[in-house]
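Sample 3 of the quickstart, ligand benzoic acid:
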Amino acid sequence: MSVGLGDEAPDFTAETTEGPVKFHDWKGKSWAILFSHPKDFTPVCTTELGALAALKPEFDKRNTKVIGLSVDPMTSHEKWQGDIKEVTGQTVNFPMIADHDRKVSNLYGMIHPNASDTMTVRSVYIVGPDNKVKLTLTYPASTGGNFAELVRVLDSLQLTAGYSVATPADWKQGEDVIIVPAVSDEDAKTRFPKGFVAKKPYLQVTPQPNK
Ligand code: BEZ
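Result:
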């Protein structure tokens, strides 16, 4: 099965390094990042888990919980955490699913047989408070993820959930945003009191409304 944008993130129960988790109950009304990595005790994955752990304060600020997965067993996850701490200086501060029966990997389509029959790819899902999937990313085993990008996307998702705006390429918190084309000029004047510039009839730019 594959999971697309706007789909409900499939619910599951799983054993994790922080005890049993029922996904929807665990995330509650928070945002969540569910990610898979290919294998424990591998170099790129070691750096990825350290990098995600280091970003916990940023995820907390954005009301976002993180949960990871690979098909390795719990004993392996637990032993590997010592290496992650030693190498990256970070304590893994989120649950890691031991998906040895591939239940969750198959539910989300995290195993791509033409890449590997035995390992999950590097999948990332951002799930909203409504349990709907807001972002999917897939990286190959040889490329570690850019987790600052996840923070940037969360900022965009959380802004655009509350205002009729979209964010342009490479947008960062505090930069101008785009008024969605469905908003008329008349409406834009009241909804965006900071004003807007029409670069084209379909491209109207306004300062970030919640700053
Ligand atoms: C890694 O994390 O370095 C890795 C994992 C699986 C295959 C190749 C690389």
